Amino acid sequence: MGEQRRYIRIPENLQLFYEVIPAVKVKECATKNISQGGIKFITDEFIPRNSHLKIKLNFYKTLFSFEALTKCVWVREMNYSEEYEVGVDFIDIPPEAVKYLISYIETFLGPKGK
Fold first, then answer.
1. In this structure, what DSSP letter does residue 106 have?
2. Sign of the torsion angle spanned by Cα atoms 79, 6, 64, 68
3. Structural domain spans, the chain
């Protein structure tokens, strides 16, 4: 049986800044996909599961950005690379960011995606 997701994910390459709490430094990377519930991204540092991250996500096309608190729910070492795929869930996100994400994803999917 296939995996069932709570939210529709769309492939999107957006600028992401994050810091693992307690923050030592801010890192920059790009997202692989986004949803109303979280983000997948690739980084060169191992982030332990259950770590909290403060993120800032920038949408190039619309100049919208927001900050949120997330939690690392999974991390995988990538084959033949010194990078990691990381999945984080939003745990504290501004209401206007949730509305924006819903609208952004619906626009991406178009009328057939609904």
1. H
2. negative
3. 10-113
| Nearest by Cα to 6 from 41, 49, 36 | 36
Given a contact cutoff of 8 angstroms between Cβ atoms, the answer to whether 72 and 86 are in contact is: yes
What number is the average pLDDT over the span 31-39?
Answer: 95
Domain 10-113 belongs in CATH node 2.40.10.220: yes
Amino acid at site 98: V
Tokens of 54: 């403060």
pLDDT at residue 5 is higher than 70: no
Q: Give the number of other Cβ atoms within 10 Å of residue 30's Cβ.
A: 12
CA nearest 35: which of 56, 5, 58?
A: 5
User: Any idea what DSSP says for residue 111?
Assistant: G
Residues in the chain, total? 114
CA distance 32 to 98: 19
Residue 20 and residue 2: Cα distance in Å, rounded? 32
69-101 residue pLDDT tens: 999 999 999 999 899 999 999 999 999 999 999
Q: What is the DSSP letter of 84?
A: E
